[in-house]
Amino acid sequence: MLTRKEMVIGELLAKGDDITSIAEKLRTSRQTVKNCLNVIYKKLCITRGSKWVIFACKVFAETMEREAEEIRASGYPCGRRLPEILTKREMVIVRCIAGGMANKDIAHEMNISEQVVKNYICAITRKLGFSDRLEVALRFHYEEFYASRG
Questions:
Q1: Distance (Å, rounded) from C-alpha 146 to C-alpha 12?
Q2: What is the pLDDT of residues 73-125, one digit of tens each?
Q3: Whose CA is closest to 144, among 24, 61, 37, 31?
Q4: What sections of the chain are H helices per DSSP?
Q5: How many CA atoms lie within 13 A of 90 on its CB side?
Q6: Alpha carbon distance 55, 98 (integer Å)
Q7: Domains plus CATH for the chain?
Q8: Whether 141 contacts 98, CB under 8 Å
Q9: Which residues contact 76 (CB under 8 A, 6 or more apart)?
Q10: Phi, psi of 21 (to 5 degrees)
Q11: Which of 2, 65, 96, 142 is a Cys-bridge partner for 101, taking CB atoms 3.0 to 4.6 Å apart?
């Protein structure tokens, strides 16, 4: 599905690198990286939401087998699934984050203030021992990936 070069760019993106740093690491131009990302988005049928978060999650799911040990070693509670750890309202927020929605969009969708959304995200990351929303989205897609396999 994705070429080796596309997977490398995706993995760097999933790890938090921006276009400039990816271009430097691959010794290519920013425009080449942008063009490659556009091809990747088309291959993965990404058409809405935050392209960066959705793409990072899809790449993460594709490389799950190889990354499983590192994920387990990161310290989050692997033995328990998200619905066992988080409230129903927090799970709604997690699904929105995993879908690439911005805080403002989540607030509008749930009819709450943007500050309340930020408070929820802070509580979610604290409960899971994560530092940002990308890790939350990746965990959600990690569970979805394994649920779809068995």
A1: 23
A2: 555 445 578 888 899 999 999 999 888 888 999 999 999 999 999 999 999 98
A3: 61
A4: 4-14, 19-26, 30-43, 51-62, 64-73, 82-85, 88-98, 103-110, 114-128, 133-149
A5: 19
A6: 10
A7: 4-64 (1.10.10), 73-149 (1.10.10.10)
A8: yes
A9: 128, 129, 130, 139
A10: -70, -35
A11: 96
pLDDT on residue 106? 93
What is the chain's alpha carbon radius of gyration, rounded to the nearest angstrom?
16
- Residue type for position 119: N
User: What is the pTM (predicted TM-score) of this model?
Assistant: 0.53
In whole angstroms, what is the distance from residue 124 CA to residue 37 CA? 30
Residue (of 48, 43, 45, 47) closest to 6 by Cα position: 43
Helix, strand or coil, per DSSP, at residue 137? helix
Predicted confidence at residue 57, as pLDDT, reads 62
